[in-house]
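Students often ask why we bother predicting the structure of a whole assembly rather than each chain alone. The short answer is interfaces. A chain on its own may look different once its partners are present, and contacts between molecules only exist in the joint model. In this exercise we take two input lines together and write out one structure for the complete complex. Read the inputs first and try to guess which parts will touch.
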Amino acid sequence: MNPTIQHGMHPDAEVLTAFAERLLSDTERNDVLAHMATCGRCREVVFLAQSSMEAEEPAPSVTTVPERKSSGGWLTGWRWSWIPVAALAGVVGFAVIRHVDRATDSETRMAQNLSPSEMVQSTPTTNTAATQPPGPRPSPPSRAESKEKPAAHERLDRDAELDRKSLDERDRFVAQKKDELAKETLSAAALKDSGGSVHGTLRARAKSSNVGGPMAQNQVQQQNNVQLQQNYANEDRQVSASPDSANKPVSSPIRSGAASETVTVEAADKAIPVSPAPSAAPAMTAMQTESADISGRNFEKRKAGNPVLPSKLAVSSEATSGKRIVAIDTAGSLFCSEDAGKHWAPVKAQWSGRAVLVKTGPSMGAVGGLLTQTIARFELTTDKQETWVSDDGKTWTLKAEAGK
Amino acid sequence: MAYLRDVDDLAPSEPVDEPLRLDFSAAAIALEPALLDQLWGESEAASWGLVRSDFDRIILMAALRQNFGLAPGVIASRDEQAAFFRGIRLAELVLASACAEGNERAWEQFMAVYGSQLTRAAIAISGNETVGRDLADAFYAELYGLNTREGKRKCPLESYRGRGSLIGWLRTTLSQRFVDHYRRTYREKALDDDTHDLAAPLSSPEPDGAIQVTLRNAIGDTLSSQPAEERFVLAAYYLDGRTLAEIGNLLDVHEATISRKLKRATEAVRKDLLKKLEKAGLSRRGAQEALGTDPRDLELGIDLKKLLQHSASDPFREQMSSEPATKDRNLTGALLPDTTGPRASEAGSER
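Now the answer. The structure tokens for the assembled complex follow.
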């Protein structure tokens, strides 16, 4: 033991300093500790000297506490914090941009859903009834929007139900006759779209506007959009996200690949008879036709499918049998073409009132004792609920009512 | 030319090529001139005006007092001599020794280097600028050798041996002066101060009863069986009210380590105490009840203090007014069955 630390003696300042500066050997250190365990004076001396040293030199401390390590200023302390901060800022910025885009899309969708009259203005009434309206086109759906698919389905189903009820009441007399046509349209659409019964029904109703009307067309468009969300997920959204670009004539391959347009083309190619709602005003229909022309989407194809009548009015109803086509313009005049719409000839009205609807109806005949059904007769319906039939589209006779 | 030289011979001499020899108390110390030249260059004493002859004498005296760090009577080899001088603060030792001899150049250097540091250290130790400056002035006077003993000038710097830093030695010495002064003044003002009334409980009679005596003896035996560092930590924490950070800084360990040490020490002391009390004839329940007794009721706080230390440290507790939360600690309270020692969260809160 160091003589200065023997019993009854205090270690001198030299030893205590060496202890505080960790210069003692283990043996000497234990001796000093054993002394200080029983000597309050030496403990006080050592702690006071230590505190004065820390007050003089606050920075160097052997027992570094983690929170005291920062001695390079605030910038050094935040050096590694910039990485998560930058990442967070990027995420926030991305979320803001997405939010703005979604708000724009939502506004467009709201305008389409809540303002059907506006949609009627922008919806063509010819056989392009199922085509997309030329107004602001909904942007290609994103991944985030695809998550809202169930909610969109619910909303579409609800709106379609309401639309269906109201239109069915108004067009009660046409609905039953159009069911068969709708089924045919549905089966045709099912070739392209395996989207389910709801899609098919709405699509058929949209094509037969007598049943579904413009609202059903809108529903079909929206459902097609929802269906296309996954296809558009990796596409460039700027083309259609901007309202300006949506209003321009579109020649983008993205747009030409839209399913809604594909359905329209199929309908035109197959010449499925599509009639507008009877209640549509001629002026409105003319405006819709102009809008459809302005949109320029598949203009050539639609031009071939749209017969140009001598009256220069749009076709409100049309029926085809072979190369023979019978069409009613929006003024109620009937025209007939025998060369698949290349040349038209007006048909003198042989009925009273105004022709509203023309279609091809079944013609019954007995062959060999069997009842056969052929589609060769045109049927014309007037606003007085009279049905006239014709085999060539030119000579019409009043159809005898059942039971009369 | 070899020559003998007395330690009191202050006659200046030029460095020589022959080994410098010094006969003192029948022990001859010889230093190689090459080693002296090397030490002279390393000390940089010439920069503040020390002459070579004074340097040689100071070196010889330091080597003579410590015998190169070897046992008395052992002759140090040249390598041991060199190792000794490289292991000490040579430049600071030369400066302190020159100051102790009254070298004016050395004092100028000393005041230039350590003057302001010493004043700040005194203020930090006393916790008061006025008291700190007075303490520093008094210490300067003492260092300068104004105090005499038996007609001889007495300078504390003579006791500096260069083992630690000179500023550390100065701080420690200053702390000693402050502690001694405080203890003297505390005792002097006890008669006409309010603390006089507080002294009454301290002089209360010893606890009587077999249980108290048994408990006191058991505590003494248990604490003495603990390692020195654990006992120091227990005393510093429970008696002096030091924080975990202060203890950790002094022992060069993290405060969390001190916390664990304290917890282990209190648990070990408690277990050992229970064993000793059971050996002394107490039942286990009686031993636990004895440990669970409020130490203030048993007045064992005083006994523990006496067991842990011989000199009371109560005056310093009052001095540490910046740590009021730690004043009420007592070791016996920490030994209660439900006590788990210092909490780790205290480490942060105490800062």
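Check your guess against this: Residues 82-114 of chain A form the longest helix (33 residues).
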